[in-house]
Task: structure prediction
Amino acid sequence: MRTSIRYIFCAVVTVIAVACFSSAADSQQKVPQLSQAASVTQTVGLTDITVTYHRPGVKGREIWGKLEAYDKVWRAGANEATAVSFSDDVTIAGQELKAGTYSFFVTPRRGDWTVIFNSQPKQWGAYSYDSTKDVLKFSVKPEVIPNEEWLSFSFTDLTISSAKLVLRWEKIALPIMIEV
Result:
């Protein structure tokens, strides 16, 4: 009898422990991120363009030249590197870019910034950035704008065959013309 009670007690304790640990694991799987995930999609002509990114906030910090150093490759967002997908071939800065998903980086500078589309789409930050995997690189003149607290991407100047993809954060907008 004593062995049966001990067996039942151990079984009940085991079930409770498993339930508690799996419940704790479930609650830890999804927590709010400081830099919220976002995406924006635009159809231009017949081509779908999607930008997937995380939105850091300015939060009273000096961004350009401080938090994000000049002359250093930046993931154009927070957490994972920003990714841009094209359902069809496009032309950017006069250069053809094949359909696919690319990581999107920029190099902030005091003058024109460098924009980079890299063939390795799944990267954490720019820590494993490999310039040998760059498929498109060009310069863009940033524009001064009113303060934008949370990093954003949007599409402007839409026509049947083109759109401007604009990165906005802090007091900078970086426009990139895309043609289909």
Remarks:
- The longest strand covers residues 162-179.
- Residues 1 and 7 are 10 Å apart (CA to CA).
- DSSP finds one helix and ten strands in the chain.
- The beta strands are 36-44, 47-55, 82-86, 90-92, 95-97, 100-107, 113-118, 134-140, 143-156, 162-179.
